[in-house]
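quick one if you have a minute, typing this from the bus. theres a chain ive been looking at and ive put its sequence and its fold in token form underneath. please have a look and point out which stretches look like helix strand or loop to you. anything you notice is useful, everything is just below.

***
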Amino acid sequence: MLSNLQLFLDAKVIQYNQPNFIENDPIVIPHQFQKRQDIEIMGFFAAVLAWGQRKTIIHKCQELIERMDNSPFDFIQNHQEIDLKALLGFKHRTFNDTDLLYFISFFRQHYQHYNSLEDAFFIGINSSTEEMLNHFRNYFFSLPDFPRRTVKHVSSPQQKSTCKRLNMFLRWMVRKDQNGVDFGIWQKIKPANLICPCDLHVDRVARKLKLITRKQTDWQTALELTAKLRGFDPQDPAKYDFALFGLGIEERWGEGFDLTKMDFD
């Protein structure tokens, strides 16, 4: 028998996991493209730059696309040194052109050897997401003389981070359903292994629903939340990101919502 809480969250997933969610969310950026590599590259940038208001994030990502001649994969593969001048001066919060140039170098190096960015994460069918994220960070900074300032933009469980941006990116690439919000273009990593992105809104709502009991917010918190969500859907726990995020940012549950009137027993 399904609990009232699961029924409630399932309904919220249906409400927010809809095509109209795309327009006002950073996921709109990779949805502009058809080519797999363009989706991966701009999905990654959109996730990494996901700080602050969604409108600003989308605007800065759109600026980045234009700086890469509206064809990110082609720009990364075929640019000459002089073409990189178009990227100078790009900035969003603490992410600047030094970071951007390293990201471009990494992507160029990676796609010379692999057809998909999934290969940067996947290390084996029995590997956990924690192992994959740790591997990815080490791999990402494997180029010689990477800028020390750039390391703060790619997190991992080794730093005890919730890795909310990378987990969001993985959700976009791995999950697939009939609603078409997430892309589901990766096949090696399974939806059952995804970790729910634990941003400010998700964290607040999850605590109100007693899905999180841990006092601090770190990697273990993300694992705790996902373990609870797997109790509702073992094969697709990250789908509840739609419900928790939607409740937080659209319905303002993190701003004094009164749960005493809700019965989730």
